[in-house]
Backbone:
């Protein structure tokens, strides 16, 4: 409906009067919102400063150093892409990449697979809290303590090796002294120490599946196995996807277990991971340029692998909404 | 639950400011930091930093207590770092941020680059002064190594460790060896052939012949003992063109590849070289005087002795002497107090105090040798002193380049693992040195 020119001032006046008519309580609320926002900034301030100081600035510095030669003491010299070409030709980096990928390929599927199985087993168990505490204990235990305990267990005369020797009737394996076994030893510790967290996440995921979907499948005659493989597992897939990405990135950054469990990255660099390589170059050899270049290479690798995972998720990740 | 109305503006702001301040202070604090500077009453305060085992750190604390009794005007604070591996990265951060201790240890593998960076105080004038208890000539000249550049002294060895061959008489006996290496050495019959023959016999029994840490003193010590030369007088690497060096490295590589020699670094922690040695799994172990502590700790000291490195003709030759060095921060605010501490720490009396009672090293200065011989253990303890007198520190040309010695050790590891031959290894070493030093 069109309006006449004469009506327009009246409309403006109406708006003005409606603003004036806002109840006092509403104005007070708007004021509190502003203050809440201010408190919010105060509270996130330390986090932001921490992020800038300990993440963004080091990240920028690392990027800059990747193109320079610097030993931490003398003047910095620009070398262009030399650190990258040197690193990409360095057999130690190659070994580190292979070890890191192997570690991820062992720990991620086995670790997550075990976690799913345990979560399913615990789901209906009344005493599951006790088991959850047991599984979660390694997560909250210091990595140093975990690694040192496993170091003793992995000794040829340690309880883990001796038990395996007895069960299979073989000479107890020298886990940390044999280049073929050292990485497997690190994998065992990594899986063990992250298992609890994954179990908790999967358990929460399983309990979050809508009972109506399960009930509908049951009414349709689905047995336990087909219910699990065709309904529950697909509906758990977003959690699996999230856990896979987190576990993969975490695996790519393995350092402390290697550092404590296998000093000097094990026999013949058998457990040398990329992060250990970065640490060794930087803080062991004071070669901060090559170390930073290796860090950038790790970043690119992680981004590529994560992008691949995101690409692949379209094929195996199902959301409850999709079904609807 | 928190309600925004309950929050008092002032208390929240205080909380935020406190959190930010804590964060910023943490970032700028640099860990324990240093506190050198004038102490109360016009006295001086200095910080001394080192790595060490709990026993060593206790001894340093005792030294400081005694020092402060002698010098009540100087307050010394010990800033220890337990691990050698962590020590230098912390020191580097402290030097870069100008928060480094006044007096500090530096390892022989890192010394050269600290010297090159001009962060260490030149000491020649101070050492020659009346206040000095450590004249330059009091030290054994071969042990300065990378501490001297272009005729200027930037640090001095606080003590040294000649890598002797410790041997387990029980293992030798088990391998059917009836001759005693130290006795052979005293008779001038401790030859390379004899040593290798013993290793063959030990390995034939399924035991380790010899264990070595993979570092400069091992490969250069072996080369030197066999009459070869790694570097010439000008500091150029010539090992790859010297026939004696090539032959020596070939033998070294062969024995490692045959598993008769073992790289101690590659043994697993928890079942490492020390453990193998005290449980009679290895015949020889190239190590310093600190092995006394290992053997006594395991209560197996009886039946072990030391001998120097074998040579083709049985006459002693120079071999590697590991050292750590004491330096003064060029930025110290208390130069006089720092030097007083430095010179007393290194003096014959200071070294005697630190190394007495089963100490872990050999004095680097004349006049304190008695501490090595005091307990008559091991039987041929004099070997440590003899080896020090003729031995050599890491080559200055090599020590001055960050991680060069470590990178060279990596190349020797390839040889030990059979991934390269002697000529190939030495050529790669020569190329690496040329690329890093221009020589």
Residues:
């Amino acid at each position: 409906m069109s309006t006449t020119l004469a009506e327009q001032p009246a409309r403006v006046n109406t708006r003005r009067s409606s603003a004036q008519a806002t109840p006092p309580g509403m104005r007070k609320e708007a004021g509190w919102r502003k203050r809440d926002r201010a408190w919010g900034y105060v509270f996130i301030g330390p986090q932001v400063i921490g992020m800038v100081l300990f993440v963004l600035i080091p990240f920028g510095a690392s990027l800059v150093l990747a193109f320079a030669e610097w030993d931490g003491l003398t003047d910095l010299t620009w070398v262009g892409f030399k650190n990258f070409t040197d690193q990409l030709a360095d057999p130690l980096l190659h070994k580190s990449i292979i070890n890191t990928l192997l570690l991820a390929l062992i720990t991620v599927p086995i670790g997550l697979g075990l976690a799913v199985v345990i979560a399913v087993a615990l789901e209906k168990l009344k005493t599951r809290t006790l088991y959850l505490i047991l599984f979660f204990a390694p997560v909250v235990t210091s990595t140093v303590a975990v690694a040192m305990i496993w170091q003793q267990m992995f000794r040829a005369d340690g309880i883990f090796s001796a038990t395996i020797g007895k069960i299979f009737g073989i000479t107890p394996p020298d886990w940390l002294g044999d280049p073929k076994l050292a990485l497997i030893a690190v994998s065992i510790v990594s899986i063990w120490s992250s298992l609890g967290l994954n179990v908790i996440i999967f358990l929460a995921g399983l309990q979050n599946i809508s009972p109506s979907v399960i009930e509908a499948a049951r009414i349709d005659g689905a047995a336990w196995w087909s219910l699990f493989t065709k309904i529950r597992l697909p509906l758990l897939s977003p959690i699996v996807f999230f856990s896979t990405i987190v576990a993969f990135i975490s695996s790519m950054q393995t350092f402390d277990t290697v550092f404590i469990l296998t000093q000097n990255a094990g026999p013949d660099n058998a457990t040398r991971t990329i992060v250990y390589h970065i640490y060794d170059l930087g803080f062991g050899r004071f070669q901060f340029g090559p170390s930073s270049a290796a860090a950038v290479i790790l970043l690119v690798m992680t981004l590529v692998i994560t992008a691949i995972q995101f690409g692949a998720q379209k094929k195996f990740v199902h959301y409850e909404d999709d079904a609807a | 639950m928190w309600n925004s109305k309950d929050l008092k503006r002032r208390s929240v702001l205080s909380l935020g400011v406190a959190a930010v301040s804590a964060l910023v202070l943490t970032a700028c604090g640099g860990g324990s930091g240093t506190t050198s500077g004038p102490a109360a009453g016009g006295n001086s305060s200095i910080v001394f930093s080192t790595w060490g085992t709990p026993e060593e750190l206790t001894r340093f604390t005792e030294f400081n207590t005694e020092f402060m009794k002698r010098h009540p005007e100087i307050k010394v604070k010990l800033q220890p770092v337990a691990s050698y591996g962590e020590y230098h990265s912390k020191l580097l951060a402290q030097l870069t941020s100008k928060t480094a201790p006044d007096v500090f240890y530096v390892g022989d593998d890192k010394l050269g680059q600290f010297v090159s960076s001009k962060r260490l105080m030149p000491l020649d004038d101070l050492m020659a002064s009346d206040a000095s208890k450590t004249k330059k000539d009091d030290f054994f000249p071969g042990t300065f190594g990378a501490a001297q550049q272009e005729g200027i002294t930037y640090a001095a060895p606080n003590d040294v460790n000649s890598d002797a061959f410790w041997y387990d008489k029980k293992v030798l006996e088990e391998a059917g060896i009836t001759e005693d290496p130290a006795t052979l050495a005293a008779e001038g019959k401790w030859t390379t052939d004899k040593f290798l023959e013993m290793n063959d016999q030990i390995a034939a029994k399924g035991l380790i012949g010899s264990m070595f840490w993979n570092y400069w003193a091992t490969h250069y010590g072996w080369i030197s003992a066999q009459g070869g030369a790694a570097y010439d007088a000008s500091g150029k690497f010539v090992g790859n063109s010297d026939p004696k060096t090539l032959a020596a490295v070939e033998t070294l590589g062969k024995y490692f590849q045959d598993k008769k020699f073992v790289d101690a670094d590659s043994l697993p922690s928890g079942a490492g070289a020390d453990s193998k040695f005290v449980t009679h799994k290895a015949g020889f172990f190239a190590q310093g005087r600190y092995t006394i502590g290992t053997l006594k700790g395991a209560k197996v000291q009886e039946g072990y002795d030391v001998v120097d490195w074998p040579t083709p003709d049985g006459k002693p030759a120079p071999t590697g002497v590991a050292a750590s060095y004491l330096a003064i921060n060029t930025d110290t605010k208390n130069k006089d107090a720092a030097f007083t501490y430095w010179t007393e720490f290194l003096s014959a009396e200071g070294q005697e105090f630190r190394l007495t009672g089963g100490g872990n090293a050999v004095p680097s200065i004349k006049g304190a040798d008695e501490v090595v011989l005091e307990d008559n253990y091991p039987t041929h303890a004099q070997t440590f002193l003899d080896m020090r007198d003729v031995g050599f520190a890491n080559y200055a040309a090599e020590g001055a380049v960050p991680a060069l010695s470590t990178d060279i050790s990596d190349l020797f590891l390839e040889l030990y693992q059979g991934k390269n031959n002697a000529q190939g290894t030495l050529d790669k070493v020569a190329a690496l040195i040329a690329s890093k030093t221009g020589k």
Observations:
- Chain A has 14 helices and two strands.
- The longest strand of chain A covers residues 68-69.
